[in-house]
Amino acid sequence: MILELEPQHQMDRAALGMLYIRSSKGALVPLNALAKVSANVGPLTVNHQGQLPAVTLSFSLRPGVSLGEAVSAVQGAAWAMLPPTITTSFQGTAQAFQSSIKGLGILLVMAILVIYIVLGILYESFIHPLTISLASPRRGRALLMLLLFSVELDIYGFVGIIMLIGLVKKNAIMMIDFALEAQRKEGKTPAEAIYLGSLIRFRPIMMTTMCALLGTLPIAIGWGAGAQARRPLA
Predict the structure, then answer these.
(1) What CATH number is given to the structural domain containing 223?
(2) Residue 54 burial (CB count, 10 A)
(3) Count of beta carbons in the 10 Å neighbourhood of residue 132
(4) How far is CA 163 from CA 72, 136, 231, 234, in A?
């Protein structure tokens, strides 16, 4: 059932005073006792976001400008121009970009934690996974390469860093595995065992590294359709 005013009262502002609102004590109170009705100029529609009045401002990207740079510029302009009583938030593609960036940091930490747990189960030790993990800071070189070639750290770049962590840890596993065998079966000291393991495993590690470098070289150069977006991966 839908209730509505009679036609002769629909255009009369005084008719609003005939509405009654029930108070907290249960009594009916006329609306004109609580509010004042006045005529003024206002918008035809008022948009809301989270039950608050909202205004949507759209922006486009200039050629050669990434979405991350645009989001930072818009945030800086909003903080400089808007009063503290106004709150801002991104919608659409910019909101999805911010959500993905926040999730990628957690994903990177979870990847390292999962690798540590798997290595701990494999070696039945808390120390050897830490020894293997000492090779992980090499991903800082990946960030340096992105900086040198002015490439954005986007989702593809994060995937490349996670893959690099796995590749570097695999190389460390090869040396630690051989060193443990030499230490247990041949009675060598830890220093002698890891030195011998580094010498013997040097060629396989270099072969794996060169295969990875040459395999990702076409992606890094940027050949083919959509290759520009995949360059951070390489």
Answers:
(1) 1.20.1640.10
(2) 14
(3) 23
(4) 28, 11, 14, 10
Run of H or E residues at 145? helix 139-148
Cα 160 from Cα 168, distance rounded (Å)? 12
- Share the mean pLDDT of the chain: 81
Kindly report the pTM of this predicted structure.
0.54
Which tokens sit at 17? 């005073």
Question: Please, what is the Cα angle at 212 between 210 and 218, to 5 degrees?
Answer: 105
Domain assignment present for residue 13? The answer is: no
| Residue range 10-65, pLDDT digits in tens | 777 777 777 888 888 888 888 888 888 788 888 888 888 878 888 888 888 888 77
In a domain, 173, yes or no: yes
Quote the number of domains for the chain. 1
Q: Is residue 18 part of a domain?
A: no
Across residues 205-219, what is the average pLDDT? 85
Report pLDDT for 137: 59
Q: Is 46 left (phi over 0), alpha (psi -120 to 50) or beta?
A: beta
